[in-house]
Amino acid sequence: MSAASLSTAAFPFPVLVADIGGTNARFALVRDANSPAIHSAQTATADHPNISDAIRKSLAVSGLEAPKTAIIAVAGPVTGDAIPLTNADWVIEPRKMIADLGLQTVIVVNDFEAQALALPGLSGADIEQIGGGSIREASTKFVLGPGTGLGAAALIHAANTWIPVPGEGGHVELGPVSPEEFRIWSHIEQVGGRLGAEQILSGTGMPRLARGVAAAMNMDRAFANAADITKAAEAGDPVGVTTLQIFARALGRVAGDFALTLLARGGVYLTGGVTPRIGSFLTDGAFRAAFEAKAPHDRLMASIPTFIIRHDNPALEGLAAFARHPDRFAVDMTGRRWNAGEDQAT
Single GO molecular-function term (predicted)? Predict the structure, then answer.
């Protein structure tokens, strides 16, 4: 990464920021470096043939002016001039967007990179602390998000700059540590000969864990999805309750592993669609105990705070913060920035 490839120059305003998921697309407009993000209506990706159509209609419905820059967050890596979405029919084509919408600049980043960009600005009702510890200012932060998959990203602070580092941390190994877990793990089907964290700690992985729990408990259950499991747990079903208890403890261990690896004294933050649905299992003490159980570094872990992100859409807020002050973030633009009149991404 060269200095020339970093995000130091201001973007032409207004800036459209977009969080594009497999099901929904969310948009907001940032008019200048001192303006809040003005959110437009959420729209289903299936309702539009492409992103340009969704942007055009969303802005029209909200009465917002046309942007000059678009900064877009998508799930997965940004490679090439055509970026397919994992769980939707759209293909993001920045040069086509420039032509369709009259844009000067299009930037595409990873979705958890956008989540990481939001972390320095989250406070008050945006976050709920789990357990003890306190934020050390200007220190590394980490965000972990069990949703459809398990997203992860770091935000490193160095040379007075925040540096987002996306990755595939959700695919680290996850093994059992207690006698109960050893009984259950033997009943969980592996994926590609292994059990990565995402195969358990996600909305798609939770049913896999529940089947293992049911088998270990000699109980028959047919949970179709994570929502069925959380509803069962709320009703006191022993398989549902045990599944969420193990889920929370395992998530605590994985979060602790990342905190220790990166010395994330700026805090570890939980986001994703699953997190708000299992809040009581994350705040009952088991998650935090698993997070801190990193002997011989228990005391260090106890000093690192953990949070649930309660903001409705932190990814949009992260992109908006980047749009206002790109000089505060060292975001690598190599191959991820397209400008009008240029034949290829810069």
Answer: D-glucose binding
Query: Is 111 marked as a binding-site residue?
Result: no
The answer to whether 130 is annotated as binding is no
Written out in words, the top-level CATH class of the domain with range 123-310 is alpha beta
- The annotation status of 252 as a binding-site residue, yes or no, is no
For residue 7, the model assigns a pLDDT of: 56
Does 19 carry a binding-site annotation?
Answer: yes
3-state SS string for the chain: CCHHHECCCCCCCCEEEEEECCCEEEEEEECCCCCCCEECCCEEHHHCCCHHHHHHHHHHHHCCCCCCEEEEEECCCCCCCCEECCCCCCEECHHHHHHHHCCCEEEEEEHHHHHHHHHHHCCHHHEEEECCCCCCCCCCEEEEEECCCEEEEEEEEECCEEEEEECCHHHCECCCCCHHHHHHHCCCCCECCECEHHHCCCCCCHHHHHHHHHHHCCCCCCCCCHHHHHHHHHCCCHHHHHHHHHHHHHHHHHHHHHHHHHCCCCCEEECCCCHHHHHHHHCCCHHHHHHHCCCCCHHHHHHCCEEEECCCCHHHHHHHHHHHCHHHECCECCCCEEECCCCCCC
pLDDT tens-digit map of 200-223: 999 999 999 999 999 999 999 999
Fold topology of 3-110+329-339: Nucleotidyltransferase; domain 5 (3.30.420)
Does the annotation flag 38 for ligand binding?
no
17-65: pLDDT as tens digits? 999 987 889 999 999 999 999 999 789 999 999 999 999 999 999 999 9
23 is in an annotated binding site: yes
